[in-house]
Amino acid sequence: MAATVAYDEVEIGTELPPRSFPVQRSTLVQYAGASGDFNPIHWNERFATEVGLPNVIAHGMFTMASAIRVVTDWAGDPGAVTEYGVRFTRPVPVPNDDEGALIEVTAKVAQKLDDRKVRVDLLVMSSGQKVLGMSRAVVQLV
Asked: Which residues form the MaoC-like domain (predicted)?
């Protein structure tokens, strides 16, 4: 399956539909089971605070995976993403309450490249703070 977005119809500055991703402690347990990452900073509040974290934190790869969903949903095919990279700038603390945390993602086309590809820059925030820096994806369009 190929991307459903046409290269010729995309302009620099095109904004992708924003998304918000709720994260609760149960989400972290499910992700730990799927990924095999059972580091106690992701589930044990006492351990997390003893090592200097503000609380249990979301897995960095979970945050990264949540963010790229904005791009894959827009493109219509996860396989259309040919490159993706981020810098982890801040953890996403996940309180043990009914609300948890929220990862908020906006993105826009920053550059049109050769071979019908575009670079998409993402802004990934939680609690008003940027949690991923240099978050960029290259997407193959039709």
From this structure: 17-118
